[in-house]
Amino acid sequence: MDGFPAIRVKCTIFVITPAVGNNAVMAGSTEPAIMTYEIKEKDNFHFVEEGEGEPLLLLHGLFGALSNFSHLIEKFRHTHKVVIPLLPLFDLDIFHTTVGGLAKHVHKFIEMQDYRGIHLLGNSLGGHVALVHILKHPERIASLILTGSSGLFENGMGDSYPKRGDYEYIRKKTELTFYDPAVATKELVDEVFAITNNRMKVIKIISLAKSAIRNNLGEELSQIQQPTLLIWGNNDIITPPFVAQEFHKLIKNSELHFVDHCGHAPMMEVPGEFNTILEQFLQKMRKPASTES
Length: 293
Prior knowledge:
Strand order of the largest sheet: 1-2-3-5-4-6-7-8-9
Helix content: 25-40%
Number of strands: 9
Number of domains: 1
CATH topology: Rossmann fold
Radius of gyration: 18 Å
CATH superfamily: Alpha/Beta hydrolase fold, catalytic domain
CATH class: Alpha Beta
Structural class: alpha/beta
Order of helices and strands: EEEEHEHEHEHHHEHEHH
Number of helices: 9
Largest sheet: 9 strands, mixed
Distance between the termini: 40 Å
Shape: globular
CATH architecture: 3-Layer(aba) Sandwich
């Protein structure tokens, strides 16, 4: 493959599994799980790539972290090539800090790696980026998976922009992301607080949020031909259940699964149920088409 060889950097991810039901427990334990993934760097792209097989490419949201997908990585790296490009949310110049700018980044990354037959999964803003990508470049995408995706409607951080320096405000807003506020661990709140306490990062958050609102895809979704899986929390207040129903209505070849006692991030809150639904969907994708005898 052309280009410079990848520079590999070891990254240890500490994943706290709070007690939010059996789905959140790894191997029957509520102890912190430690997993080590290799963050690769190539031509200014940073990404995780685990396993072999059909690419399962994951796009994180605005306050996304690798740990959001930890259960998913561990489940599917045994059957798929799980890929997570780190989106340059705060690295693009302000004019390109948009949904479209992130979609261009993803497109360049996919072309660089020459992935084909991709199962493209996006959560929240990552779902919006996935939608923009598949509408512009459908040829390499085998299926689409959306969970808590923007693109039609979303409630943002609340009734105002993130307040810098107000830890309690950030904690409460972070907790609203989930059905069970215990999922908003101190580590997660600290991460969000650090981001919102950085003036330039706040400016870029606002830029991305405004871009997401402007970039409504309602009139374009009927163009999507790929099989599409929608996994939605019944208690999602950021992209409420009616948003999932509208996606289901507008994307012809789609199936919709609601998950009870779950908010905006099903892959974090109910990873067991999420992975079961996703696994069944991907198994259907792998079944060979019937041939004439």
